[in-house]
Amino acid sequence: MSTLPFDSSVYAARLERASALAAEAGLDAVVVGPGPDLKYLVGVEGDTIERLTALVLGPGLEATVVVPRMELAKVRSTAVGSLGLAVSDWVDGENPYDLVAAAVGKTTRVGVSDALPALHVIPLGERLSTGLELATPVLREGRMIKDSAEAAELRRAGDAIDAVHRRVPEWLRAGRTEREVAADIAEAIVAEGHETVEFVIVGSGPNGADPHHEVSDRVIEDGDIVVVDIGGAVPSGYNSDSTRTYAVGTPDPEAAERIAVLVRAQQAAVDAARPGVTASEVDAAARQVLADAGLGEAFLHRTGHGIGVSVHEEPYIAPGNDLVLREGMAFSIEPGIYFAGEWGARIEDIVVLTADGCERLNTSEHALRSV
Length: 371
Ligand code: ZN
Ligand code: ZN
Ligand code: ZN
What we know:
Blueprint: H1 8-24, E1 29-32, H2 36-42, E2 54-57, E3 64-68, H3 72-76, H4 79-82, E4 86-90, H5 96-104, E5 110-112, H6 118-128, E6 132-134, H7 136-144, H8 148-167, H9 178-191, E7 196-204, E8 225-233, E9 242-247, H10 253-272, H11 279-292, E10 304-306, E11 313-317, E12 330-333, E13 336-339, E14 343-346, E15 349-353, E16 358-360, E17 369-370
Parallel strand pairs: 1-5, 3-4, 5-6, 9-17
Antiparallel strand pairs: 1-2, 2-3, 7-8, 8-9, 10-11, 12-15, 13-14, 15-16
The protein binds zinc ion (3 copies).
One zinc ion binds next to loops.
């Protein structure tokens, strides 16, 4: 990413809100390492490395970025530079935890982002001589509610992945391996507007019965049911994630019937998704349709997960999650049915909650599609 997806004022507001939420939670400081939270707050991309990069924020603190000098130019090209945040750079041989301690000042409760690895958490805790706690409840609040600009990016990602699904019949046929089909799909994910391919799952026949299957060298056969679950990130970093189930040739009529029930279950959860209901109520809407058709046992996982600058984030649409859904939340609705050794099916859309319902971001054909 060379340019920031949003105006600097967006990042300024996110930082301010994070500090306010930290204050509400009784945290004096929050240390955010590389990962989705850092990307969300200041636009800094990348994973943790052995050299510490961290943003320190908190009520009454000056937001400060501790960064290896060799990473400085990259970090300055983000909102860290455009907002003129304080920077403490360091070189090999210096102790970055001293710099974090200086930015944190005198504190009693310090939170860390959940992506900060033990590699840094342990020495930081020793240096601050305080127990560190997870800042997840503080940091998830901002990321969970998408503003209109973020929703637009998710919509862009949804359109791009829909275009790929519409082209799947070009590549999916008997005699090709899952891996060959997946390679064509991966190319199209980028060609249709994503910057990166995040995952490509092609689960044919019995492989589709394993929800965690990715791809294999299995040769696709006539009559196979095939689960295609794909996603990528658009240049702003927001992700797509959509699953469709295909039949190669003519499907077994009983399988086709069960997949028609799955499509209804998915629709029931989409219809249930609105502000004021709980995550578990949306989950239950899909689960009930499957249970009524005797397919309850075949649904092996939660109904969905939040999505944004990461593919899986809060809110999780799962049994027992009493989180009350709010306008702006974005998540997947992806019930599936799995028959070990035989076949599986899943249908997945991303939705964004509106004031009184939800907007479905994926519109490619939901019904079982014969190719
Ligand atoms: Zn998916
Ligand atoms: Zn998903
Ligand atoms: Zn998943």
